[in-house]
UniProtKB/TrEMBL annotation:
Bilayer-crossing regions: 12-40, 46-70, 77-95
InterPro entries: Endo/exonu/phosph_ase_sf (IPR036691), Endo/exonuclease/phosphatase (IPR005135)
One function term, GO molecular function aspect: catalytic activity
Signal peptide feature range: none
Keywords recorded for this protein, A-Z: Membrane, Transmembrane, Transmembrane helix
Protein name as it appears in the record: Endonuclease/exonuclease/phosphatase domain-containing protein
Gene source species: Coprobacter fastidiosus
All copies of domain Endonuclease/exonuclease/phosphatase, residue ranges: 115-212
SUPFAM superfamilies associated with the record: DNase I-like
Superkingdom of this protein's organism: Bacteria
């Protein structure tokens, strides 16, 4: 009788252990699928979705561990994470692409180079001088891109900060410029900007309720 009770307790503990483990696995699987498609939700509508998308590699690793764990246990709960991986296959492929075939480089005809760059306040508004060039501006100059789209484009208002005049002077080979203002303080101003070697045919600013978000559509005919 005592042996039967012990066997019953062990069976109950194992069942509880497997049930709780499967439930936790299910939560991680749901989170993985949600993170894979978080890009669909605009960040100005739900900022949490953006952070969930950043957690994709961690959630992916956790689900792979769950698959290995349940496989060792020979338990059907391994299907939970397997189904989740199949459901978010597009997100998985985008995050870890395998370039089996590469496109041939264009060697003939005219080419247009585009640089999109989050300049992150130009290294905290570091001034650009001959003796001490701003590393972000130097990188842009060295790129020789035809069109530059910049996010977190910021400049200061004090003498010891990078000014808009310094930026324009350093990037003087781009005669066509457009700045979409976003957040503004007494000390600085930030937004997005486009510098181009070719004229803008049409510019459309996209308005947001938040001053921390911005978009702009440019039509350019090289």
């Amino acid at each position: 009788m005592q042996a039967k009770n012990k066997t019953f307790r062990m069976g109950w503990l194992r069942a509880t252990y497997l049930t709780v483990g499967s439930f936790i696995n299910f939560l991680f699987a749901i989170a993985l699928v949600a993170s894979a498609y978080a890009y669909i939700i605009p960040p100005d509508k739900m900022i949490f979705a953006s952070y969930l998308g950043l957690a994709f590699p961690v959630l992916l690793a956790a689900n792979i561990i769950f698959i290995l764990f349940w496989t060792i246990q020979r338990h059907h709960s391994a299907l939970i994470s397997i189904i989740a991986l199949i459901a978010c296959w597009n997100g998985l492929w985008n995050y870890t692409p395998i370039h089996i075939e590469s496109d041939e480089a264009v060697t003939e005809g005219e080419k247009l180079t585009l640089l999109t760059y989050n300049v992150h306040n130009f290294n905290n508004y570091a001034p650009h001088t001959d003796d001490s060039p701003n590393p972000v501006i130097s990188y842009i100059q060295d790129s020789k891109a035809d069109i530059i789209c910049m996010q977190e484009f910021s400049f200061g208002n004090s003498k010891n900060q990078l000014s808009l005049a310094q930026i324009n002077s350093a990037l003087s080979e781009y005669p066509y410029k457009h700045f979409t203002p976003g957040n503004k303080t007494p000390y600085s101003q930030s937004g997005i900007a486009c510098y181009s070697k070719y004229p803008f045919q049409e510019i459309t600013d996209i308005k947001y309720d938040s001053s921390y978000n911005g978009s702009c559509i440019y039509k350019i005919n090289p």
